[in-house]
Design brief:
This protein is an alpha+beta fold. It contains 23 helices and 12 strands. Helix 17 runs antiparallel to helix 18 and helix 22 (681-691) crosses helix 23. Residues 512-716 form the Histidine kinase domain.
Length: 734
């Protein structure tokens, strides 16, 4: 028999075992001190006194056992006695847990088993005395000593086996709430005794205590104290350690790095043990390969996403840290502190509100890109903004009005992966446009509903680590969507107020214009009255011509300041007008300019209009086309008729306009691309055409030119007696 009686040094497995027992004793003492302090302060006073003292006694005895093992070594008689005391204390803890669990009918058969196990364990001191007596007689390696050693090990295995059976019955027989409280304590006891079962089995087979197994036994004891401490804290304290997601992510990263370092050390050491002439070359090759692997994986966004998912899934009850998410959400929405201006432009230098809206939602699900669709005048959804998604191909009609009604009424968040698999919960498959279902890069659709009205729809791009959306995603996206919808609605209200203030400013300017015109009218009226009496006076005629010239100059200056061609005429009737003849007559205004008229039909194109109003609209469109075209570039007026409508198109090949400007800025009052432009010409032209029961359509491409089409009802299709139209009334109706 080879049972070492003392540590051979502080190196190798012996040193590892000694330090492991020292740390285990320290951990047990700390835990015992904490439990004594709780006992002294009267915590858990409702429990029986013996039940409250059993864990304290067990932990302190374990600390004493670990100290003796570290001091004398595993084969010393003092260590053997300490081993007996530790097992008896742990058996007492098991009995106390049975009593505390309230299973009175099962405690009775447990008592005899515990008594038998305690008696068997108390045979160890007797065997130790017998072994010491034979050793003193000069028979250190006798057959009797070997037999005593084997009997001691067999008895120890019997006690450990019985103790493990009791721990198993204690945990399995407990009810749900009790099982939660017993989990950690039973786990610690099973860990310590489970390793001892294997340890003494190996000791019996080799008839010695291997230093490697003794060192591992010390580490298992240290781990068992840690698990026992967790059990005591979970059982007696409601306080829970709740690290932030950032700390958990960093801790997991440190564990991954530590595991990687241990792997490198183990592999390098294994290569060194193999020996051979290629040892150094193999080590260098391994270091080079692992370094390249780290440089490839560490910057990987997919790896970081996987770590985040693992942390959220295994460390926290909820996927999201709602406080951090809401702070980031509000910071993204509010950054720049600017209000989106008329025509989709910002009043400050910040990112557009629509882009920030997409970013705020995309950050929640770690989506790298997204897009926002908003309702157009006809109820369809059109593209309003992109966020980091320039390659998304969005049709002009991104979503028809009937699909908009579905999202407006249900507020349903669509997981497009489910739609592609044929899953249809509430009819979202029919409401989802085909181009969205076909584009695998689009991951989810989040409606933005404000007071039962859809103000937008956000399409989120697929994240690097794709996953299935769950209830927590839906709840958070729905709440964030309502907040964003309120923000957009508030911004639209501010736009309406801003536009109203601009109109108020415009009205004040008109008041000054009316004052100037009134002065001119008074001056001309006085001149007309004096002309009746002094028309024959040459000096009067000379002064009259000078006055008329000054009045004309003032009127021209006034018109130049207005930069427009007048306003609509209230009370005029719609009459049949040949649009082609009217266009031919207008060409004379631009003599020397490349303006031509093309008639696309043989018979006259009679449309029901106010001649002066249609002339004003066409003059504005042609002048704009000339301004947008370069010198010598032609402007065409195309007159045609089809079905029930006649059309007059003004076509140029000038600089053109972007689709975003046509959608958000062209028909917005006070938004102009011309330096010093007033920005109401296109708006006024559209309203004049609408007042005549027509429409104004625009097609434009940057660098290719623009095409403005005025569509009006043909005279043959119009009601016989149309009432006079008033521009102000028609604008309100429109």
């Amino acid at each position: 028999m080879h049972a070492p009686s003392e540590w051979t040094g502080l190196s190798g497995w012996g040193g590892l075992g000694q330090w492991g027992f020292v740390l285990a004793a320290f951990a047990a003492l700390v835990l015992g001190g904490w439990q004594i302090e709780r006992y002294r302060r009267g915590h858990d006073a409702a429990r029986a006194r013996a039940v409250r003292l059993a864990p304290i006694v067990a932990v302190l005895v374990c600390a004493l056992w670990a100290l003796i093992e570290a001091t004398y070594g595993p084969g010393d008689p003092a260590a053997l006695i300490a081993d007996v005391a530790r097992n008896l204390a742990c058996l007492g803890l098991v009995y106390a847990l049975f009593v505390d669990d309230g299973r009175h009918e099962t405690v009775a058969p447990v008592r005899p088993v515990l008594v038998v196990l305690a008696v068997v364990e108390l045979l160890q001191p007797a065997l130790l005395v017998l072994r010491l007596r034979l050793g003193m007689d000069g028979l250190p390696d006798s057959h009797e000593l070997v037999m005593i050693f084997e009997i001691s090990v067999i008895l120890r295995l019997l006690v450990i086996t019985g103790a493990l059976v009791l721990v198993h019955n204690l945990y399995v027989g407990a009810m749900g709430p009790q099982r939660q409280a017993l989990r950690w304590t039973c786990g610690a006891l099973a860990l310590i005794w489970g390793y001892d079962l294997n340890f003494y089995t190996m000791v019996y087979l080799v008839n010695a205590m291997p230093a490697q197994l003794v060192g591992l036994r010390a580490l298992v004891a240290l781990l068992g104290m840690g698990v026992l401490g967790m059990g005591a804290m979970r059982e007696r304290s409601q306080a829970r350690f709740s690290p932030s997601r950032a700390v958990a992510f960093q801790s997991l990263s440190l564990l991954v790095i530590g595991g990687y370092m241990l792997l490198m050390v183990a592999v390098a050491q294994s290569v060194a043990w193999l020996g051979g002439g290629a040892t150094m070359l193999t080590q260098l090759g391994f270091v080079f390969a692992t370094t390249v692997l780290v440089l490839v994986l560490v910057p990987s966004q997919r790896l970081r996403g996987w770590l985040n998912v693992m942390v959220s899934k295994h460390f926290f009850q909820h996927r999201y840290d709602y406080r951090a998410e809401w702070l980031r959400f509000t910071r993204t929405i509010g950054q720049g502190h600017s209000v989106q201006g008329l025509g989709g432009q910002e009043t400050g230098d910040a990112t557009s509100l629509h882009a920030r809206v997409v970013q705020a939602l995309a950050d929640i699900t770690d989506s790298p890109r997204g897009a926002l669709l908003v309702p157009a005048d006809n109820g369809d959804l059109v593209l309003a903004a992109r966020w980091q998604w320039p390659t998304l191909d969005v049709p002009a009609q991104a979503m028809p009005a009937h699909s908009v009604a579905f999202f407006e009424q249900s507020g349903f968040i669509v997981d497009l992966d489910e739609v592609r698999r044929g899953v249809d919960h509430r009819g979202e498959a029919c409401a989802t446009p085909g181009w969205m279902a076909q584009d695998e890069a689009i991951w989810a659709l989040v409606p933005l509903v404000h007071f039962d009205r859809l103000v937008g729809l956000v399409a989120l791009g697929r994240p690097p680590l794709a996953r299935k959306l769950d209830w927590e995603d839906f709840d958070l996206l729905r709440v964030a969507g309502h907040q964003i919808a309120s923000t957009i609605a508030e911004n639209n209200g501010q736009l309406a107020l801003l536009e109203a203030s601009r109109f108020d400013e415009f009205n004040r300017r008109i008041a000054f214009v009316m004052h100037d015109i009134k002065n001119l009218a008074s001056q001309l009226s006085l001149l007309a009255r004096n002309a009746e009496r002094h028309a024959d006076n040459p000096e009067f005629r000379k002064d009259m011509l000078l006055t008329l010239g000054n009045a004309a100059d003032k009127l021209n200056a006034l018109l130049a300041r207005l930069s427009r061609y007048g306003t609509g005429h209230g009370g005029e009737r719609l009459v049949p007008v040949d649009a082609g003849a009217l266009a031919q007559r207008l060409v004379a205004r631009w003599q020397g300019m490349p303006v031509e008229v093309v008639i696309g039909r043989a018979d006259p194109c009679l449309v029901m209009v106010s001649p002066e109003t249609l002339e004003q609209v066409l003059v504005h469109l042609v002048q704009n086309a000339l301004d947008a075209s370069g010198p010598g570039m032609p402007v065409r007026i195309e007159v045609s008729g089809e079905g029930e409508t006649g059309s007059v198109a003004v076509v140029d090949s000038g600089c053109g306009m972007s689709a975003e400007f046509v959608r958000n800025g062209l028909f917005k009052p006070f938004v102009s691309t011309k330096p010093g432009g007033f920005g109401i010409g296109a708006f006024e032209a559209r309203e004049l055409v609408r007042a005549m029961r027509g429409s104004l359509d625009v097609e434009s491409r940057e660098g290719l030119g623009s095409r403005f089409v005025v569509r009006l009802p043909l005279a043959a299709q119009s009601p016989p007696d149309l009432p006079p139209f008033d521009l102000v009334t028609e604008q309100k109706v429109a």
